[in-house]
Amino acid sequence: MFRFIGRLLFEVFVEFLFHETGRVITRLLSPGRHFEGITLTVVGLLFWSTAALLLFFGYRTLA
After folding, report:
1. Which CA distances in Å does 1 have to 8, 10, 12, 50?
2. What is the C-alpha to C-alpha distance for residues 11 and 33, in angstroms, rounded to an integer?
């Protein structure tokens, strides 16, 4: 039961946070092309990693 719930939460988290963010970014940067699967996930992961690093270093600079 817990494995199912954990897997469900993980899938929702990865799908929404990384995959959909990657879809939005690729549509903004390449409107005529259609990307699928791992490409969208990698783009979303790179975006959130970069955003987290920028926030971290910005906080350290201002603190």
Report:
1. 11, 14, 17, 35
2. 25
Residue type, 32: G
- pTM metric for this prediction: 0.76
Q: In percent, how much of the chain has pLDDT > 70?
A: 100
**Tokens at 28, concatenated:** 């903004």
Burial of residue 22, with CB atoms counted within 10 A of its CB: 0-12 exposed, 13-18 middle, 19 or more buried:
buried
**Is the Cβ–Cβ distance between 20 and 44 less than 8 Å?**
yes
Is the distance from CB of 48 to CB of 17 less than 8 angstroms?
A: yes
